[in-house]
Design brief:
Layout: E1 8-15, H1 21-31, H2 52-57, E2 64-73, E3 76-84, H3 92-99, E4 104-110, H4 117-128, E5 132-138, H5 147-158, E6 162-164, E7 166-169, E8 174-177, E9 185-186, E10 189-190, H6 191-203, H7 207-216, H8 223-235, E11 240-244, H9 253-262, E12 275-279, E13 282-285, E14 297-306, E15 310-319, E16 322-323, E17 327-330, E18 337-338, E19 342-346, E20 349-352, E21 355-356, E22 361-365, E23 375-377, E24 385-387, E25 397-403, H10 409-422, E26 427-431, E27 436-441, H11 444-458, E28 462-465, E29 472-475, E30 479-487, E31 494-504, E32 511-515, H12 527-540, E33 551-559, H13 567-584, E34 587-601, H14 605-614, E35 618-623, E36 632-640, H15 647-654, E37 660-670, H16 673-682
Length: 690
């Protein structure tokens, strides 16, 4: 079915675990004619949860894409790209990457459980990206559903701009429209009351529309005026519409599909993508136009390493048309690749297509240069274009891994690289100093899933152990250092002398190297060698064997010899002068502090806070918030990362499995003196002797 950009709707389904996103996607695909029969999670037949691990666990662990081509009338057709995202915070990386590819975030809320903590975070992330937000309250037919309570929670959490487009009636067995009509009754009261509220909210976004409304009431507004005001309200966050559905029975699903087609913005109407272009002075916003004839600009928001078609790059087209046999560049690469095959995704199926127009989502295969967030383009004018980066949670949980069998080291490295390409919140690090490979993720469950994928997909077994904590070093005072390196070996010798001073920088600043040498006492060609010696200490550490940060080094004097001075001499002199200064500058070992949020039943709150206090945590506050209806309280704290070993198991034991937690990196701060003493004593200096 041919379609234009104005016919496209891009929607990501997001929400708390168990809200029913995957089931709702199936219901929408069925209602739109893309499926003859909706699959179920229980039977493992859904379009989006096609991975064997997802089927076994009964929940999504990655994003999945499907589309609907629907013609509700002979004169109009629509193309809906729907992205199902995982709800568990462990898989937040792929979920957040999907938000960069859509105009609308459909936040699914469980009518039984109400507004959960994960809902708050997802709504905020969607707002940050300038997306239109729509709430779908699912499971309205359940016996425990309380739609009135959920509506109150939504308005308390997100403001009075949250208003329903339709309302449940007859105990959730049907829904009634309250945007297009004012007649009838519902489970939440008279339709006329809600109709007036949403009408008042929409018309006040535009002075001209408001004037027509005040002059002639609802009859004084043309359908186009009301439509434009509705979309402007969505774009500016002035309206967060709510739709009530039951994905299991189909109640409200067709109405939700109509809302997506008739009221949600197409790619030309939504807030423009946050594209940036590098110039000589930094970056500037780039205006793009959904022009099918313009230069191609597309962003890769998902990488899939498919065992049958190889590396698959899934991208969103912002400008131009991508066709088969098109020549495209990746970022600032000088050599183009040819689009041999172009795909539309339908869960695990890859359907070949001829072209992808502005606003569409498509995929190309077997292009090794592709990576997450790569920009595809057909002109060197777009070499420096990139999408505003997505803010992902920092992966703080780590495991040191090594191949269980000798000879599998290369296979393990390649497999880890592929997994890191697919999940932007999964990081692989290699510490050359201790020859340790560390994988980092968002939780212990996240890492367990990755290890299982290593075995199932790549046939790689690994041994694991706790990694070294990512401590850092810094200094707390100004100090001066000096070293003269003089070495005579019978022939040409080595000579270099360096005087420098160091001082602490604000936390998180990094490192500054300043050359204040006057009179050529250290010739300019040797200054990079001095900096190299300093950076060797920065990398390996001075007192505990951990990288150093937040320090300024100023080289202000020195001496050289016209024959014996060499780069190696000044590198050695710079390194040892720096070590000399650090020893006098009150060196400190810093530890990573994380922001921790723990959700636990109120009855176990005392036990949880006691456990946190024993782990050197600082309790920031507690908040029942929107989770109070479920008897859950959220504890917010800051805690050293080194103290969280075993916390997951302890929380599970304290709360009988009902506790949950999430964390994100906050900052570095000095360790207690007794901890620093242990780290310093355990460190074996690796510096060369004179």
């Amino acid at each position: 079915m041919p379609y234009a950009t104005r016919d496209i709707r891009n929607v990501a389904l997001a929400g708390h675990p168990g809200a029913g996103k995957t089931t709702l996607l199936e219901a929408l695909l069925h209602a739109g004619g893309a499926l003859t029969t909706a699959g179920t999670i229980e039977r493992g037949t859904t379009v989006s949860d096609f991975d064997p691990m997802e089927k076994a666990r009964g929940h999504s662990m990655d994003i999945a894409i499907a589309s609907i081509d629907h013609a509700p009338s002979p004169d109009r057709s629509y193309h809906l790209n729907l992205i199902d995202t995982p709800g568990y915070p462990e898989f937040r990386g792929p979920a957040l990457s999907a938000l960069a590819a859509v105009e609308t975030a459909l936040i699914v809320v469980d009518a039984d459980a109400g507004v959960a903590h994960g809902t708050l975070r997802l709504m905020e992330r969607a707002r940050e990206r300038g997306l239109c937000r729509v709430v779908a309250v699912n499971k309205i037919d359940h016996e425990q559903a309380d739609c009135g309570r959920v509506m109150r929670q939504l308005r308390e959490a997100f403001g009075n701009e949250v208003l329903p487009l339709n309302l449940p009636a007859d105990g959730g067995r049907r829904v009634v429209d309250c945007f297009g009509t004012s007649a009838g009754d519902s489970d939440l009261g008279p339709v006329a009351d809600w109709h007036q509220r949403i009408l008042d909210q929409v018309v006040e976004i535009d002075e001209g529309v408001m004037e027509h409304f005040l002059d002639g009431g609802e009859a004084g507004l043309s359908p186009q005026e009301l439509h434009d005001a509705f979309e402007k309200s969505l774009r500016e966050g002035h309206l967060v519409p709510v739709c009530f559905v039951s994905a299991r029975t189909g109640t409200g699903v067709r109405e939700l599909l109509q809302v997506a087609e008739r009221l949600l913005p197409d790619p030309t109407e939504a807030n423009p993508p946050q594209l940036l272009k590098r110039n000589g002075h930094g970056e500037e916003p780039l205006d793009t136009h959904a022009d099918a004839r313009g230069h191609v600009i597309a962003d890769v928001f998902k990488i899939v390493n498919d065992p049958f078609v190889g590396k698959l790059g899934v991208f969103r087209v912002y400008q131009g048309t991508v066709r088969r046999d098109t020549q495209l560049f990746v970022d600032d690469g000088r050599k183009p690749f040819k689009v041999g095959h172009l795909f539309r995704l339908r869960g695990k199926e890859h359907v070949e297509i001829d072209e992808a127009i502005p606003g569409d989502i498509a995929a190309v295969a077997k292009i090794d240069e592709l990576h997450f967030d790569a920009v595809l383009h057909d002109s060197h004018d777009e070499d420096s274009v990139h999408l505003a980066p997505t803010r992902f949670p920092k992966p703080m949980f780590g495991l040191a891994v090594q191949a269980a069998s000798r000879g599998q080291e290369q296979k393990l490295a390649l497999a880890l690289q592929k997994l890191a390409e697919e999940d932007p919140a999964f990081v692989v690090e290699h510490n050359a100093e201790v020859n340790e490979t560390v994988i980092r993720g968002l939780s212990e469950l996240h890492l367990r899933v990755m290890l299982e994928r290593l075995k199932e997909r790549f046939a790689v077994d690994v041994d694991t152990r706790p990694p070294r904590i990512a401590y850092r070093e810094t200094v707390a005072a100004r100090a001066e250092g000096h070293h003269r390196h003089k070495k005579q070996t019978g022939g040409a010798g080595q000579f270099g002398e360096v005087f420098l001073r160091i001082e602490p920088l604000p936390r998180g600043t990094g490192f500054e190297f300043v050359d204040e040498v006057k009179g050529g006492t250290i010739p300019g060609q040797f200054m990079p060698a001095v900096e190299k010696g300093v950076r060797q200490v920065l990398q390996s550490g001075a007192v505990s064997g951990h990288a150093m940060q937040d320090v300024r080094v100023v080289v202000y004097d020195g001496k050289h010899h016209p024959v014996d001075s060499k780069e190696i001499a000044f590198a050695t002199a710079g390194r040892k002068a720096f070590l000399d200064a650090v020893a006098k500058a009150r060196p400190q070992v810093l530890e990573p502090i994380v922001d921790l949020e723990v959700g636990a039943p109120e009855a176990q709150l005392g036990d949880v806070t006691g456990s946190l206090a024993a782990r050197r945590a600082r309790i920031v506050g507690t908040d029942a918030g929107t989770d109070a209806a479920r008897g859950e309280t959220v504890v917010k704290a800051q805690v050293p990362m080194s103290e969280l070993d075993g916390f997951a198991a302890e929380l599970k034991s304290l709360t009988a499995g009902k506790g949950r937690y999430s964390l994100d990196f906050s900052h570095y701060e000095p360790v207690p003196p007794q901890v620093q003493q242990k780290l310093v004593e355990a460190y074996k200096p690796r510096h060369d002797e004179d």
